[in-house]
Amino acid sequence: MQVHVLASGSTGNAIFLDFKHTKILVDAGISTRRIKNSLAELGTSIEALDGVFITHEHRDHVSGLATMTKKYNVPVYASTNTWSAMYCRELIPAQCCKVLPKILEIGKITVEPFSISHDAADPVGFRFYNGSSKCSVVTDLGFVTESVKEAIALSDVLVLESNHDIDMLENGAYPWHLKRRILSNRGHLSNFDAGWALAALVRKPSMQVFLAHMSEKNNDPELAIDTVSKILIQQGCKLDSEIKLHLTYPDRIASSNL
User: Fold this and answer.
1) What global pTM score does this model have?
2) Does the chain have fewer CB atoms within 10 Å around its N or its C terminus?
């Protein structure tokens, strides 16, 4: 299993999961050209995708869908409520629009969505099973509920939101209504909360974690790594052996092989 975060942040999100026999894209919030070029760097193509799975309807997760589906006819899976709320729904060919079931077999992969807390119509995270291996993706969530902890437990690879530093956000230039939204239970996960969520997880002996959806104005990659690392060390976790942390970026690929 290879996990490639093609882009992550408020300007656009897309994650490529390469299981060799099955190739999946989670979200398409960057241009079709960027997706095509990024996949080409990784030795594959949009035509090789078995499906695109959408976490929620916000533009930074779906802005590339209309062009990509028209040009490449790739199947896209989203919940009924997400399809209804999606601004570009009418621009996507009907044959590409698939309703996301509670569980789906695609190729040799089992896909299970799970509900998360965010200010969208029906936001979900995903867990992907490939034999005994598990990859989970959960970004854009206000807090980590017990059901989310159960969903992402025992992951080999986890893409987890680490959106903001609380002090940077509270003392930054955002208007109060936007700060309140981000800090709410239906907003975005802070570095602090991401660290404690990881510390509380039931884990395998080793796990790789991508810290994702970082705010460019209210976070700093090194601060995110430092905050999460300190919490994990305080809770007795051995970094790199038990949990290996990876940064993600809005403008370049971050990768991990399992």
Assistant:
1) 0.97
2) C
